[in-house]
Amino acid sequence: MHRWITRLFMLTTFGPVLAWVMCAGTVLWLSGPHGCRIDEAGAYPCVVLGRDIGEPAAMMGVLAAWGPLIFGPVVLVSGGAWGLYALIRRLRQRR
Q1: Taking all residues of the chain, what is their mean pLDDT, rounded to a whole number?
Q2: Are 13 and 78 within 8 A, CB to CB?
């Protein structure tokens, strides 16, 4: 049971951070070498390997820009609950 709970806390703590880093990295990669315009105002044409990926790029831009505000509370609550769970488990093992 302990392993399952720990994995759940790990997923909800580090998963959103990983998703945000991947979105931010992709947006930087698309806007740098490929010259795509990505902002929160809307989708612009962005051709990579002969395909227009303007809509997904715009969504990644929104997540990259607003990710800390969206994912931050989830990460903080999950990390705090994980720490509290670990502390209680450690204190119970001492007895």
Answers
A1: 91
A2: yes
Would you say how long the chain is, in residues?
95
DSSP reduced 3-state for 95: coil
Residue 17 tokens read as 């951070």
d(C-alpha 89, C-alpha 70), whole Å: 30
Could you give the 3-state DSSP secondary structure of residue 4?
helix
Number of helical (H) and strand (E) elements in the chain, helices listed first:
2, 2
Reading the chain (95 residues) residue by residue, the pLDDT tens digits are 788 999 999 999 999 999 999 999 999 999 988 889 998 888 999 999 899 999 999 999 999 999 999 899 999 999 999 999 999 999 998 87
Global model pTM greater than 0.85? no
In single-letter form, the type of residue at position 75 comes to: V
- Please answer whether residues 56 and 50 qualify as being in contact, where contact means their C-beta atoms are separated by less than 8 angstroms: no
Q: Which residues contact 83 (CB under 8 A, 6 or more apart)?
A: none
